[in-house]
Each structure stands twice: as C-alpha cells, then as structure tokens.
Amino acid sequence: MSDAVCISEIFSSIQGEGLLAGRRQIFIRLAECNLDCGYCDTDHAGGDTCRVEISPGSSKFMLLSQPLLLHDVLMILENWCSGLPGAHHSISITGGEPLLYADGLSQWLPELRQLLPIHLETNGSMPGALERVVQLVDYVSMDMKLPSTSGCTEHLWNLHREFLRVAQGRNASVKVVICDDTLQDEIDQVCGIIEEVDRATPLFLQPLSLVEGGIGITVGHLLRLQETASARLPDVRVIPQMHRMLGAL
To answer: Less CB within 10 Å around the terminal CB: N or C of the chain?
Structure first.
C-alpha cells in the first residue's frame, strides 16, 4: 500500500471486544484486508467515499470523498473530543486490516495520539508492518485465527508468534473466535504461543456471533475450551461481542 490511508468509516461507539470492552472509543475503520475469514461481519472493500458519523453516537452519517486528509480527520476528532470531554477512552484503529497502511499510519498516529491513546485492532498476521508503528500505539489487540473457525490456513501460527513478540510492551492481548467446530488442540496451540512469549498476556475467548442472533457454540463446549486455556494461562476471559448485544455500531 502507499502512504495514503483508505478509511471506510469513522464513528463513536462502545468497544465490544477484548481488553477494552465497555470503553467508549472513536473508531477509525480502514478498508481492505489480507485475509478472508469465513465469519467476518465487516465489509472491508475500499471505495470512493468514507462514512463519517455526523455527530458522535448519532448513527447518522455523511459521505466524504476519499482519500481523507489527516488534517480533516483531526478536525473531526478534535470537535468530538471538545464537544464530549472525557467521553472517549481512546481511538481504535481497526479494519479490515489496518497494518496494510503501516506507512501511512506511521505519519498519522503521532498526530492522532495527541488527542487520545491509540488502540490497534489487527488480525496479527503482519509482524513486519507492526514493527514500523508499534512504538506509536498504546494497546495492541491481536486476533489469532483458528483454522477450524476462520477458514485460514495453518501457516499463520508462526506469524502470530512473531507478531506477539513484536507487540510486547504495548498492552498486548490476544482474541480468538470460537465455535462448536473449535478444537481443543487449537486452543492448546494458542496457549503455547502465548506461553513462549509472555504467559501473562490476556486471552479472550469470543463466541462466534450468528447473523440470525445468538452464538455458534454450546455452553458445554465453551466451558471445556475455557478449562483448557485456564489450565495453562493465568488470564483467560470469555466475552461475546458486547456491541452486538447492545445493538451498537
């Protein structure tokens, strides 16, 4: 990717996943992804326009032409922060896969970080790109993609291991989406990687959200997977997608 940053949407909502679940954030969702997970609920294709919430929390959007300039994004966020002082905990840079734009983010993040801490949500498959921006973020929330759940291939394990090494010192946490097809061996693989890097890294087991509502895993299987992980790691938490439950963006 070039230094340009292609933004799908900017909005204000409650973080529904991982370490900062329950915190209100400003979300900057970037377009495009290097993976194609079967459960993905995000349209990450790029386009000529970007959706920007007219006012934070309104769920009403205006369309702005791409590419947005950093100056324009800063003006939007400064107005939101001054209009709602203290409401937002951080800025979530999400996607798609935001590290496809590592070169552009290396220029954007120092400016954005003057407003609020930076929370990077990533699929954890691009350790080289993370190295270029890791000192500019305050939180790294990485996915580990389970082959049985995401449809991604086994080759990601080594990338996930290296990615977690690079993320150390940046409030790193790991999330895995689980369903009835998730294997205990896969959870053991995740735990093994975390143990190699930093056993204290929080692990979040996230039940698969179904399009028709509910989750794609029985409570019994969920508890068995939690037992497997908790036998090896000190900080294992089960959190469904809270924003789905709240009906939030």
So the answer is: N
**Chain center to CA of 220:** 27
**Residue 88 in contact with residue 81, Cβ under 8 Å?**
yes
> What are 75's two structure tokens?
């003006």
Tokens (6 digits) for 232:
């090896």
Terminal-residue alpha carbon distance, the chain: 27
**What is the residue range of 158's domain?**
7-246
Residue 161 lies in a domain: yes
Tally the domains of the chain. Answer: 1
Mean pLDDT by 10 residues, the chain (249 residues): 79 96 97 72 71 96 93 97 98 96 96 98 97 98 88 80 98 97 96 98 94 88 97 97 69
Q: Does residue 2 fall inside a structural domain?
A: no
Q: Residue 93 and residue 105: Cα distance in Å, rounded?
A: 9
CA–CA separation, 61 and 121 (whole Å): 23
CATH number at residue 152: 3.20.20.70
d(C-alpha 100, C-alpha 85), whole Å: 32
Closest CA to 37 of 123, 164, 99: 123
Q: CA torsion angle for 69, 74, 75, 79 (degrees, to 10)?
A: 150
Chain-centroid distance of CA 184 in Å reads 24
The whole-model pTM stands at 0.92
Strands annotated E in 58-217: 61-65, 90-94, 118-122, 139-143, 172-178, 203-207
27 DSSP 8-state letter: E
For residue 237, what are its two tokens? 């938490």
